[in-house]
Design a protein that fits this description.
By secondary structure, this protein is of the alpha/beta class. It has 9 helices and 5 strands, in the order βαβααααβαβααβα. The structure holds cytidine-5'-diphosphate (CDP) (2 copies).
Length: 218
């Protein structure tokens, strides 16, 4: 194939996809796209406009108007944006509007990077089904809630761990249960359960699997 290597990382909320994706990109000199940030930016924009994230017309308009500059907003990291993201993400027209940007990133990584890492929910199943390596990263919901709560607390977000756990469970159920590109482990994805793994071991394992995949590419 003409394109450079593509690594697809999927999994539920706060499983460590982003941390692993960033670390892989740094290690191999690849470009990294956190596709969740795109859905968060759309959900956040709809909320800020005073519209309902479940309203297909409003959400699709926000998806079509999205610009890369919107992806760096710190407000996107909160659970309110995550919840709105999960609602707009169930609308097929929203997903369709965001597909070309993601595929283009994988085929032509910015800055002339030799490869790309994308993380999200449907990268291995829909966005990049021919990725060189697919990882499905997961961990027990309680573990994920503890980690995300710690992260939000450090940012000054005064949310309880019980609320974070409830948000994560609701989001996982919506993401796995929707008809449009549901969150599901691709048949050829390697499972990485980080419940009993610290981030350094998870990254080391992901680097090992990537090296194998790059070798297999020749
Ligand atoms: O991108 P995703 O929502 O899947 O997860 P993340 O933002 O990479 O990770 C969520 C939080 O869990 C971060 O604060 C990570 O540092 C932490 N984490 C961890 O402590 N141990 C792991 N094995 C994976 C993630
Ligand atoms: O960081 P965390 O894992 O909590 O969430 P995220 O990756 O930022 O994604 C936020 C929401 O966007 C998810 O709950 C999904 O509903 C949606 N999403 C999606 O549908 N497809 C993707 N490829 C990425 C995110």
């Amino acid at each position: 194939t003409a394109r450079g290597p593509v690594i697809a990382i999927d999994g539920p909320a706060a499983s460590g996809k982003g941390t692993i994706g960033r670390a892989l990109a740094r290690h191999f000199g690849f470009a990294h796209l956190d596709t969740g940030a795109i859905y968060r930016a759309v959900g956040h924009a709809v909320r800020m406009a005073g519209d309902d994230p479940a309203d297909p017309a409003a959400a699709e308009a926000a998806a079509r108007a999205l610009t890369p500059g919107q992806l760096d907003d710190p407000a996107l990291r909160g659970e309110a944006a995550g919840a709105a993201a999960s609602v707009v993400a169930a609308i097929p027209g929203v997903r369709a509007a965001l597909l070309d940007f993601q595929r283009d990133f994988a085929a032509h990584p910015p800055g002339g990077a030799p490869g790309a890492v994308l993380d999200g929910r449907d990268i291995g199943t829909v966005v990049c089904p021919d990725a060189d390596l697919k990882l499905f990263v997961t961990a027990a919901a309680e573990t994920r809630a503890r980690r995300r709560h710690l992260e939000l607390s450090r940012r000054g977000d005064r949310v309880t761990e019980a609320d974070v756990l409830a948000d994560i469970r609701a989001r996982d159920a919506r993401d796995a249960g929707r008809t449009a590109a549901p969150m599901v482990r691709a048949g050829d994805a390697r499972l990485l359960d980080t419940t009993e793994m610290d981030i350094d071991s998870a990254v080391a394992e992901a680097i090992r699997l990537t090296e194998d995949a790059l070798r297999a590419r020749g």
